Amino acid sequence: MLLKDLSEAIGVSGDEGAVRKLIHQAIKEDVTEIQVDSIGNLTALKKGTGIAPLRVMLAAHMDEVGFMVTGYDSNGLIHFTSIGGIDARILPGLRVKVGKKQLPGVILWTPIHKNQDQTVKQIKDLRIDIGVSSKSAAEGKVARGERIAFDSPYMEIGTKMLRGKAFDDRVGCSLLVDVLKAGSYPVDVLAAFTVQEEIGLRGAQVAAQRLNPDVAMVLEGTTAHDVPDPMADPDDPSVNNPACKIGCGPVLTVMDRSMITPPHLLKFLRQTADANHIPYQLKTALGGGTDAGKIHLSNAGIPSVVISMPCRYIHSPAAYLSKEDYAHTLKLIQAALHALIPATIRQA
């Protein structure tokens, strides 16, 4: 399964080459006009049948959150900083892959026997142990500026769930590849596998300005915070109504910190889902943003929507998603491409 290869590939923001290579290999027989632009986006065209004269951008970002080497201690431990949003509380004791050689490492933490106050440390106070004992040895193994990724294998959990790193947004990349390989559409599909989303939606802005589509759909992995919180008030509405849940279908964004979905396009997606008996959920939580935040402001403005996969534990070593949600999300994307006409994207 391509999602396994994409999940296990390392593509921390700004260094997405390994992911880009996998995607290029997967789509090269199904598209034309494959290009890699100056910032690293991979774009391609799947020419439509011409029945609906529309240019539809489908975007998914290739990069993942991770870390970067910033220095060394005299005893060979690695200093590092985060790239993208990562909660320092999850890091102590985690396995990582360090640098271009993917050296095995462990994020150092004071053992419970000696950490009497159990204070949560900041990333600047943590170190990575790669098994050497001097600064010169560490410098010989990995250079400042090299990326560090979570060391987390992809696997199936039972018969319905998948686990892996970087589902934000390798699941979107996998969906986009499946869309491109699934046959023809009445519209032109402008595929954009973007870079540097996790550090400011940078690649999407460049891709949208160059492709200049009529409308855009962003494919994402989003936060399914649908597990019990033992410290929360059970009467708190936010506990009983998480942003989205695994197993309830694709997530349609109403609003986030980066954009507001045009109501007529949200209505179109909901009607398309209903007509095709596809379950879906609405995302109204204001946390986070997506490539749509830059795409919808590009050029003279590009109408944009976000279709997301609900994933637990994103921006961590091991996210969960549902196979059924994946199938429903793919079905909705394809149904929308078949249903889009010029009148759909016009403001009332």
How are the secondary structure elements laid out?
Elements: H1 2-8, H2 17-27, E1 32-36, E2 42-46, E3 55-61, E4 66-72, E5 78-83, E6 95-98, E7 103-107, E8 128-129, H3 135-141, E9 147-150, E10 155-157, E11 161-164, H4 167-181, E12 188-194, H5 202-211, E13 215-223, H6 237-240, E14 251-253, H7 263-275, E15 281-283, H8 292-295, E16 304-311, E17 319-322, H9 323-339, H10 342-345
Parallel strand pairs: 3-12, 3-13, 13-16, 14-15
Antiparallel strand pairs: 1-2, 2-12, 4-5, 4-9, 6-7, 6-9, 7-8, 10-11, 11-17, 14-16
Helix pairs in contact: 1-4, 4-9, 7-9
Descriptive key words:
348 residues, alpha+beta, Aminopeptidase, Elongation Factor Tu (Ef-tu), domain 3, 2 domains, 10 helices, globular
Q: What is the helix content?
A: 25-40%
Give the uncertain stretches in residue-range form: none
Shape: globular
Strand content: 15-25%
